[in-house]
Amino acid sequence: MTSAEPVRPAVPRARDVQASVLAALQLVEDARHLGTDSRPRRQRARVLAERVVADRKLARALRAG
Which pTM was predicted? Predict the structure, then answer.
């Protein structure tokens, strides 16, 4: 090791490990919720489009008002 190389910690930091575990759990939860949607793709697309329209209307109203 030269003096230009950073010193590596002997053990992993607990926060890094905890964040990785939480991220993995979130991925599992997301997959569980997305995989159980029984609506057809066209209906999901319509719901998303309606949300976009509502968001744009709200943004327009907030800018105007």
Answer: 0.40
